[in-house]
Amino acid sequence: MDRLKKAAAEHRRAAAVQRERGRDAAADRHEARADALESGRVTDRTDDVISIFRAAFRR
To answer: What is the rounded distance in angstroms from the CA atom of residue 55 to the CA atom of residue 52?
Structure first.
């Protein structure tokens, strides 16, 4: 869950930068992604993918 919170914070910072530069559409996309990450609609599967690769390349 920490990865998702960190990613959401990065998207919020990116949205702020985009708004400063006058790119409202890009900022809206970053805000929407941050909202999705914080809402729980996105699942962090990083550990699962890493374990699959480790098992596959162990042989």
So the answer is: 5
